Amino acid sequence: MYFFVIVFAAVYWIIYGNWIGGCLMASLFLILIYSISRCKKEEKQLKFKVNVQERIITQGDMIKITPEISGIHPWKDDYIFEVEYEMESKFHGTKIKNRQKVRWNQETKDVFFTERPKECDSLIMNVISVSWEDLTGIYKVKKQLNQKIRILVMPHAYELGAMNEKFQRMDSKEQGFEYDGVRKYREGDRLSRIHWNLYAASRDLWVRKSEDEMEENIRIGISFQNVARDRISDYFSVFYTISLFYTDLGIYQEIYYGNHRFLLKHTEQYEELFTDIFEQGMSEISADVSDLQMVMMDDKIEDIQKYLYDMEL
C-alpha cells in the first residue's frame, strides 16, 4: 500500500511538480479502493432478514417490520440500509414496490420500519434487496434477497352491544335456568320428548331437540354484486360484525361465497375463512342454494358503525 502511494506521488510530482498533492491524491484513491473492496466483502458476509411482529392484523393497523442483521461489523458510527420490497395483494391483484431506509449499528436494539394497509386483504411481502453506501458515499452495493412473508389483514369488527343486551333480556324472560338442548313445545311434538322437570320449574312446555335440530345452521351469503370497489372493506366489516355476533351466540353458520361453502363454528376459524376468501377471490353464488341470508350494505352509507347500530335497533 505504501509503495503504491510513493509511486503515485512520484508520478504526480513528475507531471505537476507537487509531492504533497500527489500523496493526498494517492491516499484518497487508496481509501476509495479499500472502501469498495470492504463493501464487496460485506455483501457476501451480510445476513439480512426481516420479521413481522404480527402476521394477522386489522385493517388500518400498523405492520411493524423488524430487520434481523448479522455477519458484518460497523466500521463507522452506523449503517443506513435501504430495503426494497414489494407488497402483493392476493385479493385485489395489485403489486406495489416500496423502499424504506433503516439506520443500524451493533448497539441498536429497536430497529424497524412500518406499513399500514388501508384495506382488508391477504398480502405477500416480498423483500427484494438491501443496499448501502461505502465510506466515501461514492459507491453503493446492493445485495439481492428472496424472502416472502404472508400477512392477513382482517376487516374491522364493531360491537353490537345493544343487540347483545336485547338477546340477554329475551333469554331472562324465557328462563331462569339453563335450557341448552331444548326448545319451546310446538304442536305435533311427541309427548315423550317433553322435558317435565323444566315444565315443573317454569310452567312452560319445553321439548328436547333432536340431533338434526341441534345441527341447524344459518346460511349466509357474501356477494359484491351491488358493492362499489372502494367499499369492499366496509362490506366485509358488516359481514364480520354480523357473523361474530352469531358465533358469540353459539350459532353455526354456513358461509357461501361464489362456489365455496364454509362451515363456521368457532372464532378461531375466521383466519382460515378470510384467507380462503382473499386467496380464492369472489364470484356470484349459485342460484341452487336455498334459505340464504344475503349480507347487504347501502353504498350511500358513510358511517359503518352507525349503520350497524341503526340496524340492530
By secondary-structure content and strand pairing, the structural class works out as: alpha+beta
Radius of gyration: 33 Å
Main β-sheet, spatial strand arrangement: 2-8-7-4-5
The helical percent reads 25-40%
Q: How many strands appear in the DSSP assignment? A: 14
Element string (H = helix, E = strand): HHEEEEEEEEHEHEHEHEEHEH
The mean pLDDT is 80
- The total of helices stands at 8
Unreliable residue runs: 169-177
Largest sheet: 5 strands, mixed
The shape, in one word, is: elongated
C-alpha termini separation = 84 Å
Strand content: 25-35%
Written overview of the protein:
It is built from eight helices and 14 strands. It has 313 residues and is of the alpha+beta class. The protein has a five-stranded mixed beta sheet with strand order 2-8-7-4-5. A four-stranded mixed beta sheet has the order 13-12-11-14, covered by helices on one side. Strands 1-3-6 form a three-stranded antiparallel beta sheet, with no helix packed on it. It is elongated, with a radius of gyration of 33 Å.
